[in-house]
Every structure is written in C-alpha cells, then in structure tokens.
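Chapter review. Work through the record for Mitochondrial import receptor subunit TOM20 before attempting the end-of-chapter questions.
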Amino acid sequence: MASTTPSQSISTTAVIASVAGVIATSVVAYAVYFDHRRRSDPEFRKHLKRQQKKISKSLEENARANERAQKEKIRRLVDEANQDGFPTDPEDTEQYFMQEVARGETASTDGSDPVDAALCFYKALKVYPTPRELISIYDKTVPKPILDILAEMIAIDPMIPVTGSSRSSDAGSINVE
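Structure tokens for Mitochondrial import receptor subunit TOM20:
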C-alpha cells in the first residue's frame, strides 16, 4: 500500500525547487561568464562581430531575394491579366469593375497576400474610364503597402494613362517611376 506522507511531498517539492534553483543558477552563471568573456577577450569579441555580420548579410540577401521574387511575381501577374483581357461592353465593364474593387477591398482587409489585393485594384483600374481619378480615390482608401505594389503594376503597364490633365489638380501620390 503506497500512501503519500507529508515527508514524501516535502521531499518532492524540495527536489523540484532544488532542480529549478540549479537551472536558474546555471543560467545566471553562464550569463556572467559570457559577459566577462565578451568584455575581456578580444578574439571572442571579433568572433561575435563576425557572427553578427554573417547574420545581417544573410538577412539582407534574403530581403533582396524576396524583393526580386515579388517584383517577378508582380510582372508575371500583370502580364497574365493583360493576356486574359478585360471586358469592353459597358455593362460587363461596370460589373467587372465592381467585382474587382470588392475583391481588392476584401483581400486588403483579411490579411491575404497584398500582391493579390493590388492585382484586383489594378484590374479595376484597367477598365475604369478615368484612371487618374480612381488613383486619387485609391490613394485615400487603399493601405500603403498595397498602394506601393499597385504603383509598381502601373509602372509596368504603359497602357494606363496616368499623366495629363484631370479634373482635380493632383491625382494622388502614386509615383509610377
């Protein structure tokens, strides 16, 4: 018959507390050792600096690779959208415009890929009769990261007339260069 006595539970608690104390002491001791070595050993400092440089260089390379991949994806999506074509009938154009704007708004608020959201706004822009006015509206309503991607899409496609006169004096801050 195995019954737990108060001395057994105290000893179990004492063992757990001792193990926790040893672990905490080890962590503090290592931190003190690491700090001492970092302050007093020039070779160790050089090693830490080299590691930090390697890490930052790797992060930079990853960021550049991600940026290149995103630009390639944007170009591919714009080309695909232009190859698929756009409706020309006024009723179909209006319906297509409303559908793409709604999809873009949904995609921009639900946290999905910002490139896909920008593509929806781009498709709507392609069928809108006065693109400068729509860009001005986008500038006020579309989140900045998506707006930046949309600006890249507009820069890729020379068929969108964003220069010239408009009813408003400033068509927004999308820079397509």
